């Protein structure tokens, strides 16, 4: 309870007043229905009295005078129970009065229900608005260590979903809950006032209903949890497979993966059927108890009316309905409790964050600002570990000093703490022991915003924001002029390329800077750092991701700007730090050596080792400028969907991007929004459900029985009222007992019918869902790789499609059909009964039905319509929040948290306004639909009274007709509320069918196979463009061939088409012109699975699956099950066996998601073993060693040399050392081979290859 009220902590006085007023309205609204019962009971008595009078006066010898019936002879007429009979009831006048009562109550309800909704929703909108603002601001001021422990995706979900859950829990649901509880209390009161004995008897039975409802809710929640958990497993499989689609395709694992997916689906199906069955049982039990309860209440109640005369017929109805209404409302209030519980859970997460104090608060005003800054930085015995990994010490008692105005370079192996020191200088983290000082002041005592304003930083992977180039540079320092921006761009060597762009400085850089090449992004980041005019410049591998040309340009820009500032540079390529004043060598979190380049080489320590390692294996021709570089760990492009080969984003600065360009992404996303799917015909959906027709038939039978129960109830209920006007007591008792027995029979039928409906439709629906999911997944795996390049088909989008579309289709079959059959039979039976007994009265009530139905439809429409607007409005805010959280380090480094918080708050205004508007419209609909019912009663009972008096209609028929039509109206409303599900189902089905019907461009089934596969490969005039980027020609007349058993090496800079040629060979794509010949046969005529089974591939970033080492190696051959001996054999060849034997679980060790538990060298060797197990004729090595450090590289390289023996091999290499002994070296440029030959020939030629070797550059 305490937590529930905590959700309102953002309420102002005004909000509290609004909520109190809304609650009062809700209480009054809740009291309206029980109040109506009092009118109803008096009305019943009037009808019964009038009926008795009419019956009695049929006797010729009776007459009415002074409101009492007399015999003609003057003595008073007495009934069997010795009572005199009242007469002279003016039924018309009485009914008019009752009609006025109804109308009065209806108008009251109209007003209070409107205010009840509007006040609560508006108050909730204001609080949600506050909450979002506070939460986002709080997140933005958290220290960076907090973000290490909380994933950005999770925070984004919290921003949207969790706060939505809270806002649901504090909005109109509260008022509806109060209204229902109020009806519950007043219903009981009305019952007790009418007759306490009957009330107690009914109450005694009601726990049975309550317990059942509670158990049902619990069971369903648990089973849903189980079902979701088992589906989540299947979803994880799908996600993993689609992310690594190229690996799956290359190793022919499609059938295996579909099987693995289906195994997990089976479990979900079993739980789903259980859930449906249990729902059916409980529903049946509930209805059964309710009808038995009716039987008991009417039997005992009629005793009280006839035998002891404690109740009048009207009071019997009043008590019975009072209790029934109380019970129903109590039941309807329980879903609200569930919403509150969700809200509470969500609030706990949100408020824990809001209440947490940030350890390093960027918005705080505390701390000194120094007047003069020299820029001396010193570390005093600093010990540090990351909060997310407290067991790993990164810095271990580190002491060093960086002098003002000098350029200091940090070198050392990965993980020795170089980047960490930079983060400590920016005060992203505080050291655990020791301190960092600036000009002798501990930086913890300085003002944080001010400190960060002194520092400019250029990172390895700079983050740009999705706005224009000018804005990105301006982020460095607010309020700068355009001249300053241009000046900074010139200093960073960025001005020229910016002026070549069509919109110059107003060019949008795309999400994360995706429209620009690596070198361009890097230079904009440098401009952004320079515009700050920083005292301290931090360069964290600022040029590592660039190719040679861009690197030279950027390096020049950096050398220019270092002068006169304290500069710290971290580099992996030693060439970039030749001109540093001081070099500090790191190892194991300590600074182990310090000096100039010459001093350190003489010392023969860390620096010396790095230099010699990097020089090893470079040919004698270029000892001097040895390949100073160490390939850095390059972040793969986000869009390059699980490709076998992930390339570094950086290409030559021609603006060619990695495999999917941003421009197209933006267009396709827009197209996707516009893309309208024709809803699928139901007949086709049912076709997929055909095997289950017996279940569906049984279910429909059950549903039809269930539908008839309401109309039958109307007949029985009115029949009971009719018995009260029978004058013969024995006849009366006999009829009442008969009716009660009928109620019991209905109860039993109802139990079985509900169970049948629940079980049968759950079975057919769940089977359909599983069938569609499996078919959909198989269809996805069948598509050619080019299809996955389209952002609409990104792995995330596809897994969501599998999860939601298939289960939505159930909305058109399964339980839906049951609901529809149920509603239709209910409506049909009700109308037959109503028209049969009184067609005139039926027509009067029919006038109101469209209104009641319309309100239901309108309400459903309103809510879905608004949900979409809301989503759209929140999307803009969501973009700001996700961009800010994603680039939090960059924002913190620029001290720009404030401006992002402001921008987020502006984006929230629109959703807030639309929420206020929605409150009004929803309030109007709600109040209208609440009041229509009262008006309908007023009109129909008034007209019924007229028919009774003028046409001699029996009063019990009036009740029968009205009850029947109103219940059918409810059924209609229920049916209409399911229409949105039904429409969604048809659209979801259409999307699925479109996937199932798509014919892949590269078929898996046809094509030729042959026995003596030799592995001879020939490219003839191949031209190729990627389907998502038709304007960029990747291969341009490629001609090259390789004989069986030879090794062909491709070299050239990134983007020249090396990897593309490998993908054509695997037939991920087919060339647009020209052909690829394999053993002399054109590749597009070769059977795809057969071709891929002959090829083994090892890529730069190998993709491993989340299973054991052995299973990953066995994945190499999916055509049969690979024995353990073969696995060990392959592991030995890959130099992996000894390492695996040191692991606790040996070959059963799990490698983690995407192989995260293994180091890169180990992953690479597993991938090599996987390729060897395949025993392929052709081996493709795509930069297989580029991501490794020097030691691992040598091990892996020897494993590869072992694997190459006797096979045709194509390698793509970054380092010349790895390909000197290839049979053919082909130098590529712009999609064509410019020269080829052996290492010796090419060196003698003194052409392009010679140049590359001489500069010793990395050829990336």
Structure description:
This protein has a 6-stranded mixed sheet, with helices on both faces. A 6-stranded mixed sheet has the order 18-19-20-15-21-22. The chain has a 4-stranded antiparallel sheet with strand order 4-3-6-7, with helices on one face. β1 (62-65) and β2 form a beta hairpin. The protein is built from 41 helices and 22 strands. The relative contact order is 0.09. By secondary structure, the protein is of the alpha/beta class. It is 60% helix and 10% strand.
SSE layout:
Blueprint: H1 2-6, H2 13-57, E1 62-65, E2 68-71, H3 91-140, H4 144-149, H5 152-169, H6 172-194, H7 196-243, H8 245-250, H9 254-306, H10 313-355, E3 377-384, E4 395-402, E5 407-411, H11 418-425, E6 433-438, E7 441-442, H12 448-453, E8 455-458, H13 469-474, H14 482-491, H15 495-500, H16 518-531, E9 536-540, H17 548-562, E10 566-570, E11 582-587, E12 590-595, H18 597-603, H19 606-615, H20 662-674, H21 682-688, H22 693-723, H23 729-782, H24 785-789, H25 795-809, H26 815-837, H27 839-846, H28 849-886, H29 888-894, H30 897-951, H31 955-977, H32 979-997, E13 1017-1025, E14 1033-1042, E15 1047-1051, H33 1058-1065, E16 1073-1078, E17 1081-1082, H34 1088-1093, E18 1095-1098, H35 1109-1114, H36 1124-1133, H37 1137-1142, H38 1160-1173, E19 1178-1182, H39 1190-1204, E20 1208-1212, E21 1224-1229, E22 1232-1237, H40 1239-1245, H41 1248-1255
Helix pairs in contact: 2-3, 2-6, 2-10, 3-5, 3-6, 3-10, 3-30, 5-10, 5-28, 6-7, 6-10, 7-9, 7-10, 7-25, 9-23, 14-16, 16-17, 18-19, 22-23, 22-26, 22-31, 23-25, 23-26, 23-32, 25-32, 26-27, 26-31, 27-31, 28-30, 28-31, 36-38, 38-39, 40-41
């Amino acid at each position: 309870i305490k937590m529930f009220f905590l959700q309102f902590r953002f309420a102002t006085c005004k909000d509290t007043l609004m909520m109190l007023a809304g609650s009062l309205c809700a209480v009054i609204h809740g009291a309206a229905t029980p109040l109506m019962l009092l009118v109803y009971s008096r009305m019943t008595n009037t009808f019964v009295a009038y009926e008795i009078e009419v019956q009695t006066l049929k006797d010729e010898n009776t007459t009415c005078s002074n409101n009492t019936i007399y015999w003609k002879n003057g003595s008073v007429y007495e009934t069997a129970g010795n009572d005199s009979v009242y007469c002279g009831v003016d039924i018309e006048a009485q009914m008019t009065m009752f009609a006025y009562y109804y109308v009065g109550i209806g108008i009251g309800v109209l007003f209070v229900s409107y205010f009840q909704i509007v006040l609560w929703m508006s108050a909730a909108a204001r609080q949600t608005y506050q909450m979002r603002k506070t939460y986002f601001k709080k997140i933005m001021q958290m220290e960076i260590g907090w973000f290490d422990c909380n994933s950005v995706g999770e925070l984004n979900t919290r921003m949207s979903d969790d706060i939505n859950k809270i806002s649901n829990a504090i909005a109109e649901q509260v008022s509806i809950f109060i209204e229902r509880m109020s009806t519950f209390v007043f219903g009981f009161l009305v019952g007790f006032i009418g007759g306490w004995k009957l009330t107690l008897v009914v109450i005694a039975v009601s726990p049975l209903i309550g317990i059942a409802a509670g158990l049902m809710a619990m069971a369903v929640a648990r089973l849903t949890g189980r079902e979701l958990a088992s589906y989540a497993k299947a979803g994880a499989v799908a996600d993993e497979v689609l992310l690594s689609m190229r690996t799956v395709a290359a190793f022919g694992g499609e059938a295996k993966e579909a099987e693995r997916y289906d195994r997990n689906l089976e479990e979900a199906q079993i739980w789903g059927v259980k859930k449906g069955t249990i729902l059916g049982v409980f529903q049946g039990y509930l209805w059964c108890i309710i009808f038995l309860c009716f039987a008991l209440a009417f039997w005992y109640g009629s005793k009280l009316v006839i035998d002891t005369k404690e109740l009048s017929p009207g009071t019997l109805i009043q008590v019975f309905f009072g209790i029934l209404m109380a019970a129903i409302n109590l039941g309807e209030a329980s879903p609200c409790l569930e919403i509150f519980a969700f809200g509470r859970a969500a609030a706990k997460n949100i408020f824990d964050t809001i209440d947490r104090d940030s350890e390093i608060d960027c918005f705080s005003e505390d701390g000194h600002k120094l007047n003069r800054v020299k820029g001396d930085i010193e570390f005093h015995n600093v010990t540090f570990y990351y909060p997310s990994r407290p067991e790993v010490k990164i810095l271990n008692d580190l002491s060093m000093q960086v002098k003002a105005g000098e350029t200091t370079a940090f070198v050392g192996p990965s993980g020795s703490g170089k980047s960490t020191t930079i983060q400590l200088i920016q005060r992203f983290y505080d050291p655990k022991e020791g301190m960092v000082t600036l000009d002798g002041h501990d930086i913890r005592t300085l003002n944080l915003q001010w400190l960060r304003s002194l520092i400019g930083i250029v990172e390895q992977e700079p983050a740009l924001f999705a706005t224009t180039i000018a804005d990105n540079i301006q982020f460095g320092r607010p309020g700068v002029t355009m001249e300053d921006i241009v000046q900074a761009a010139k200093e960073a060597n960025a001005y020229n390329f910016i002026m070549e762009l069509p919109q110059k400085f107003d060019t949008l850089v795309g999400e994360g800077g995706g429209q620009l090449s690596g070198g361009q992004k890097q230079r904009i980041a440098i401009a952004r750092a320079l515009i700050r005019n920083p005292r301290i410049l931090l360069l964290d591998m600022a040029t590592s991701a660039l190719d040679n040309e861009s690197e030279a340009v950027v390096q020049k820009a950096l050398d220019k700007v270092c002068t006169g500032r304290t500069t710290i540079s971290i580099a992996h390529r030693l060439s970039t730090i030749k001109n540093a004043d001081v070099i500090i060598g790191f190892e194991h979190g300590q600074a182990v050596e310090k000096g100039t380049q010459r001093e350190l080489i003489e010392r023969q320590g860390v620096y010396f080792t790095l230099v010699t390692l990097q020089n090893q294996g470079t040919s004698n021709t270029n000892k001097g400028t040895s390949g100073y570089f160490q390939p850095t760990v390059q972040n793969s492009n986000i869009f390059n969907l699980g490709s076998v080969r992930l390339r570094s984003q950086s290409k030559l600065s021609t603006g060619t991007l990695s495999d999917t360009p941003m421009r197209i992404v933006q267009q396709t996303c827009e197209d996707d929004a516009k893309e309208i799917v024709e809803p699928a015909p139901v007949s086709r959906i049912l076709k997929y459900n055909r095997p289950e027709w017996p279940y569906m038939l049984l279910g429909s039978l059950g549903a039809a029985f269930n539908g008839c129960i309401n109309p039958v109830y109307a007949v029985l209920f009115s029949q009971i009222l009719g018995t009260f006007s029978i004058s013969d007591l024995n006849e009366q008792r006999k009829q009442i007992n008969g009716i009660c027995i009928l109620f019991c029979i209905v109860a039993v039928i109802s139990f079985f019918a509900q169970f049948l409906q629940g079980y049968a439709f759950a079975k057919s629906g769940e089977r359909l869902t599983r069938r569609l999911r499996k078919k959909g997944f198989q269809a996805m795996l069948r598509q050619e790789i080019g299809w996955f390049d389209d952002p609409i088909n990104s792995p995330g989008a596809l897994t969501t499609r599998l999860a939601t579309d298939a289960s939505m289709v159930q909305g058109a079959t399964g339980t839906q059909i049951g609901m529809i059959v149920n509603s239709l039979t209910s409506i049909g039976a009700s109308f037959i009964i109503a028209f049969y007994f009184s067609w005139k009265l039926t027509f009067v009530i029919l006038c109101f039905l469209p209104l009641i139905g319309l309100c239901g439809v309108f309400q459903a429409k309103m809510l879905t319509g608004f949900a979409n607007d809301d989503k759209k409005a929140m999307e803009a805010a969501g973009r700001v929040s996700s961009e800010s959280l994603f680039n939090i380090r960059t924002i913190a480094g620029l001290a720009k948290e404030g401006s992002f918080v402001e921008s987020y708050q502006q984006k929230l205004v629109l959703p807030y306004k639309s929420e206020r508007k929605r409150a009004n419209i929803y309030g109007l609909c709600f109040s209208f639909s609440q009041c229509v019912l009262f008006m309908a009663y007023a009109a129909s009972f008034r007209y019924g009274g007229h028919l009774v008096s003028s046409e001699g209609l029996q009063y019990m028929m009036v009740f029968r007709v009205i009850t029947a039509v109103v219940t059918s109206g409810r059924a209609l409303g229920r049916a209409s509320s399911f229409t949105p599900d039904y429409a969604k189902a048809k659209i979801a089905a259409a999307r699925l069918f479109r996937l199932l019907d798509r014919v892949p461009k590269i078929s898996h089934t046809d094509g030729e196979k042959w026995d003596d596969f030799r592995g001879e490969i020939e490219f003839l005039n191949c031209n190729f463009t990627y389907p998502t980027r038709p304007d960029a020609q990747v291969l341009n007349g490629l001609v090259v061939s390789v004989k069986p058993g030879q090794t062909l090496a491709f070299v050239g800079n990134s983007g020249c088409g090396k990897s593309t040629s490998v993908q054509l060979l695997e037939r991920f794509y087919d060339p647009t012109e020209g052909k690829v010949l394999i053993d002399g046969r054109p590749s597009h005529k070769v059977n795809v699975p057969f071709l891929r089974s002959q090829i083994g591939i090892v890529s730069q970033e190998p993709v491993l699956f989340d299973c054991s080492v052995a299973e990953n190696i066995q994945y190499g051959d999916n055509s049969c099950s690979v024995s353990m001996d073969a696995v060990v054999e392959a592991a030995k060849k890959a130099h992996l066996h000894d390492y695996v034997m040191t692991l606790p679980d040996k070959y059963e060790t799990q490698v983690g998601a995407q192989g995260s538990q293994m180091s890169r060298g180990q992953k690479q060797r597993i991938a090599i073993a996987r390729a060897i197990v395949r025993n392929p004729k052709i081996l493709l090595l795509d930069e297989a060693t580029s991501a490794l450090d020097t030691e691992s590289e040598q091990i892996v390289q020897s494993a590869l040399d072992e694997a190459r023996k006797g096979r045709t091999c194509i390698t793509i290499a970054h380092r010349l050392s790895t390909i000197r002994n290839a049979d053919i070296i082909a130098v590529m440029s712009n999609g064509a081979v410019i020269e080829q030959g052996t290492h010796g020939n090419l060196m003698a030629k003194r052409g392009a290859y010679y140049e590359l070797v001489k500069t010793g550059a990395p050829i990336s």
